[in-house]
Design a protein that fits this description.
CATH class: Alpha Beta
Structural class: alpha+beta
Shape: globular
Strand content: 25-35%
CATH topology: Aminopeptidase
Helix content: 25-40%
Number of domains: 1
Radius of gyration: 16 Å
Number of strands: 10
Largest sheet: 8 strands, mixed
Distance between the termini: 27 Å
């Protein structure tokens, strides 16, 4: 797989018949859309109100491709997508070039089985390969499972924005968790 101008092989990990894959629009967009929309309808993992459409997925994959950002999935032995994650620009200003905001999503019937941890480990490895420095997770402050996962993976709570979202009839606080990497070896301005 070519990613960020570098060639690497995504680890074809087999764990209990689960396989790490590089997600593609053609193979995974339908399953990813279902996972996104379940999270929109039933949780505060996404601060969206309306389900996403396939056109949203086209734009999402284009943004990942154009930014040279990974889209990493975890399939079962039959090729069904169970979880996925990616990262993208943290902010659109040049000096943020070594920082990314990541997201991890797990299909509702497979949560709590360590799949999110596997995806997050792969995203951290990809960020190191891409010579990035900071991974930032923006997590609804009531999402105890995601917060616990990030803390177990070495992320540190760096701040909370109170009442910045409103969904399901209540104000939502957004917590930021950050992991600093030892990369890049030689950061440069410009």
């Amino acid at each position: 797989m070519v990613h960020g101008g570098k060639h690497f092989d995504l680890e074809e990990t087999v764990m209990n018949e689960h396989h790490i894959v590089a997600c593609s629009f053609e193979r995974h967009a339908d399953a990813m859309l279902a996972i996104f929309n379940e999270a929109i309808r039933n949780s505060t993992a996404l601060y969206d109100y309306q389900p996403r459409t396939m056109q949203n997925m086209v734009a999402w994959f284009e943004a990942k491709h154009n930014g040279h950002f990974p889209v990493i999935g975890l399939e079962d032995g039959q090729g069904k997508l169970l979880a996925f994650g990616s990262y993208g620009s943290f902010r659109a200003f040049p000096a943020y070039k070594y920082s990314v905001e990541h997201s991890v999503y797990v299909q509702q019937d497979h949560r709590g089985q360590g799949l999110g941890k596997t995806i997050l480990q792969q995203l951290i490895a990809a960020a190191r390969r891409d010579e990035l420095h900071a991974l930032i997770g923006a997590i609804d402050a009531s999402n105890a499972g995601s917060i616990a996962l990030h803390e177990r993976m070495g992320f540190r709570h760096v701040g909370t924005l109170p009442q910045v979202g409103f969904k399901f009839g209540r104000w939502l606080d957004l917590a930021f968790y950050q992991l600093l990497l030892d990369t890049p070896a030689h950061p440069v301005d410009g």
